[in-house]
Amino acid sequence: MLRREGRATSRACTLTAALLALTLGACGLPKDPNDTHERVQEERLLRAGLVRHEPWTYLQHEGKPAGPEVDAVEKLAARLGARVVWTVAPESELMHGLEKHALDLVVGGISSKTPWAKRIGLGKPFLTTRLVPGAPPGGSVPESLQGQDIAVAPGGVAGALLSKEGARVREATDLHRAPGLRAAWDWQLEAWGYVPGTKALREEQWVWVVPPGENRWLLTVDRFVLEHAEDIRRGLVDHARTRAAHVSEEIQP
């Protein structure tokens, strides 16, 4: 009798421990208070916001969203059995939409340093890019930029950063055609066949953002975009290469 009670007690303890483990495990699972993940799959609709930030995201002549991030979002929707409905608007307007759960996702070259970080669901950085001086094929960037003549795109931050290094800055509308050293993002330099220097002027990390508190949805989005990060980077390189070739064709007599 004592043996049976001992076995029963042992089984009860084992069952209790298992239930406790399941309960604790369930508590550790990410949740969506507004059921974003479930709604996207049930309604087969992903409401995405697009910040126009070429080449990450832009509108084609007929107004159709395009760019490597657009392609990635379309693939995410397809994986979930959904279609994408795009809203194109300024970043501030789209972020307000996320806050109110009127959108499921916003993309468009969004920096991890966005001032909206504490008010939305900030994804993990999926790509880091470097703004860096580059040299023509076969060349190299001097260790010191003091007195070096370096071309930059008009209106960007590269000029100010190079000036602090003592470089002589010249703006070039068609930066990919500028002779000598150029300062650009690493993916642009790769597209042009340029050799990047070792010292970055600036680094940026890029993210996707979702409504606040939707942790299961954020986990799904993060896993997907990290899986497709190289595709997005390759899209940036291809866009820069295509644009350079197109401009070169236009200026030929």
From TrEMBL:
Keywords: Signal. Residues 1-28 form the signal peptide. It holds the Pfam family SBP_bac_3. InterPro entries: Solute-binding_3/MltF_N (IPR001638). Residues 53-127 form the Solute-binding protein family 3/N-terminal domain. This is Transporter substrate-binding domain-containing protein.
